[in-house]
């Protein structure tokens, strides 16, 4: 059974502090309305790389307190500060998170040996399993098939959150590692990822569009490719509109239309403008009202 995870957003107040009530509302909406299988906490969509250390801890605590054991939880603990990543890996493991994940270390053009050491260090002292977060478009770090193989020599490293449009590599990865967990990260490419045998997907737009994505997964599993293609097309109309309106602030604005107080994004992310607010209302009316 393939799993669908929403990449959890963080609700912020205008001053950049965390809006706890709003963050809890989004968690509840994902569990109770979207009926996702899990949440990816502290990822790109959660604006983790905009946050202070204290804010990261706060979000990890809020998410597990609200979600309890209702859905699977993956905590993204990766950081340019390896000591912070190790600390957070232990912190979330102690809180009860069943999985951790870590973005590839970025910015300094690390060698593969340094990247491997980073991952082995993160899992060394924790009793938990790690999913590599590979997102070359944002990190500039592209791991090769052989490099994934080397990382998987550590039995605590169990999978990849594969946010990469390189489908040749995805096919190679799937076939080389049939027992590893491969989760697709580009929502607009869910169907081709399913065709290549991913185990599920994690994404930002599932916060709003989980039902359609689930229906697409089910259609694919039932062999109804025409229906799956139509659902991907409908999703991509929504995703294109969200991207054109600035995706993270727009998802939060559309949440508002759904009665969920998602707060705002944290600066330097864009703050809502009247045009963006009008755009989000239109997205809701055009693609989600009847859903
Ligand atoms: C850069 C980014 O936000 N990528 C999203 C996608 O869900 C993406 O927003 C979507 O496919 C639209 O391009 C996820 O892969 C990120 C994600 O799951 C996370 O770490 O929050």
From TrEMBL:
Keywords: Carbohydrate metabolism, Cytoplasm, Lyase, Schiff base. It comes from the Bacteria. InterPro entries: Aldolase_TIM, DapA-like, NanA, Schiff_base-form_aldolases_AS, Schiff_base-form_aldolases_CS. It holds the Pfam family DHDPS. The keyword Lyase applies. This is N-acetylneuraminate lyase. It catalyses: aceneuramate = aldehydo-N-acetyl-D-mannosamine + pyruvate. Pathway: Amino-sugar metabolism; N-acetylneuraminate degradation. Homotetramer. Belongs to the DapA family. NanA subfamily. Its EC number is 4.1.3.3. It is found in: Cytoplasm. GO terms for molecular function: N-acetylneuraminate lyase activity. NCBIfam families: PRK04147.1. It is an enzyme of class 4 (lyase).
